Amino acid sequence: MHLMDVVTAYLYGSLDSEIYMKIPDGFVISDEIKSKPHNMHSIKLQRSLYGLKQSGRMWYKRLSDYLLKEGYVNNPLCPCVFIKRSSTGFVIIAVYVDDLNIVGNHDDIVRTSEYLKKEFEMKELGKTRLCLGLQIEHFSSGVFVHQSNYIEKILKRFYMDKAHPLSSPMVVRSLDVDKDPFRPHESDEELLGPEVPYLSAIGALMYLANCTRPDIAFVVNLLARYSSSPTRRHWNGVKHIFRYLRGTSDMGLFYSRGVKLNLQGYADAGFLSDPHKARSQTGYVFTCGNTAVSWKSVKQTMVATSSNHSEVLAIHEASRECVWLRNMIEHIQESCGLPSIKDSPTILYEDNAACIAQLSEGFIKGDRTKHISPKFFYAHELQKNGEIDVKQIRSSDNLADLFTKALPTTTFKRLTYGIGLRKLKDIASKETEQVSPMFT
Q1: Which candidate in 216, 270, 314, 382 could, as Cys together with 282 as Cys, close a disulfide (CB 3.0–4.6 Å)?
Q2: What predicted TM-score, i.e. pTM, was given to this entire model?
Q3: Please, are residues 352 and 267 in contact by the beta-carbon 8 Å criterion?
Q4: Residue 74 backbone dihedrals phi, psi, to 5 degrees
Q5: What is the pLDDT of residues 117-137, one digit of tens each?
């Protein structure tokens, strides 16, 4: 992996429409124009500038046209990924605005970087170690992605860098609705004032939960619901997450080498996870090489009348994500000349037997299912087409359980390990043992 940065990327874009702007201060104008009021004149832009709404699109079009001309392949499924096969292998360019991650063997990366430098002013940043706040550690046994620097930064920002660490991100919720610490604010409770940075804390935690820390996805989703009316209870829940991060700041996702890179999915639903609004929770996670690559924890938008109903809704969401993941992986594999997963279905694990039986038979209008919309049986069509295969798994082994409910510490740690979360110090110590074995 090689990282390159485009210097002043937006200035390379050519405008597709006429745009005029006011004459800025310091702009040299002729004496003839000076005789008239300054506000009577404007200048026409020939190139895009930073600040224009269409600058990003114009830069992407310029880069895309330049790469496609050289034989790179692009697909609307993943428009910011460009792939080219060569006699020595392949090269993949992943674009994020002006940051270009180039993946391939050494010779292909050198040729690609030289080709880009012919057209754009580029900065060579070497092996990818820091990109978009993600820290990437390269080991002989695999690649480790974490955000320890970001965690340390937000802990200091919210004065939690010296807090006592905890072993789980949230307390186990009470079955008594009136004693649930995550219940909505009550009429006699005082709301937090603007001096408490609740919204900022939730935003900072959401970035973590979406990128490298799926272990806090459920509790962050839970606390984000009260952003408009937070109370002291909710703020204590946010501080609980910070204390958990204090003890696990070096935790991240480890993608090991030498394992079979098969895509697997796990789906689960927490029935009446929000008893105050009579809503359930959808949770799913997809792993590749036994490490999470996509996950989601979200409250369902409709009332589920049974646990079976909520599970059908959860599998529907997971199957939609599965279709996109499969299509993107197939495009990359076929463009790179690698073995494709097109002929083998993606296994989607679910722990509700009744839900699996219904999905295998399709929508049947009966007393138990007539209220469920047929569109939620989309997974049945995918099974018929051989794209997914829904299989039953024990609830204790369902990795998606992590995204639907608060769990005891031992169960929580087992599931986080199952989705590929590791500590940097543990990986580094294993790496040291392999390089320098102890002799007796």
Answers
A1: 314
A2: 0.91
A3: no
A4: -135, 150
A5: 999 999 999 999 999 889 999
d(CA 258, CA 240): 37
- Region label for 215, one of left (φ > 0), alpha (ψ between -120 and 50) or beta (otherwise): alpha
Among 140, 170, 118, 132, residue whose Cα is nearest residue 3: 132
The tokens for 284 are 């799913």
CA distance 271 to 304: 8
88 close to 108: Cβ distance less than 8 angstroms: yes
d(C-alpha 346, C-alpha 321), whole Å: 12
Q: In this structure, are residues 241 and 169 in contact, taking their beta carbons and an 8 Å threshold?
A: yes
> Rounded to whole angstroms, how far apart are CA atoms 15 and 18?
7
Q: How many CB atoms lie within 10 A of CB 40?
A: 8
CA nearest 112: which of 251, 186, 4? 4
Compute the radius of gyration of the chain from its Cα atoms: 26
Using alpha carbons, list the distances in angstroms from residue 124 to 4, 20, 116, 385.
Answer: 5, 35, 11, 46
| Contact status, residue 182 vs residue 171, Cβ threshold 8 Å | no
Angle between helices 307-336 and 353-361 (to 10 degrees): 60
Q: What φ, ψ does residue 20 adopt, rounded to 5°? A: -115, 150
The pairing of beta strand 42-44 with beta strand 2-6: unpaired
Q: How many CB atoms lie within 10 A of CB 73?
A: 17
Place of tokens 């039986």: 357
3-class state of residue 67 by DSSP? helix
pLDDT tens-digit series, residues 389-407: 999 999 999 999 999 999 9
Question: How many C-beta atoms surround the C-beta of residue 168 within 10 A?
Answer: 24
Which has the minimum average pLDDT: 19-28, 201-210, 291-300? Answer: 19-28
Match 């050519």 to its residue by tokens: 14
Residue 138: which H helix or E strand, with range? strand 134-139
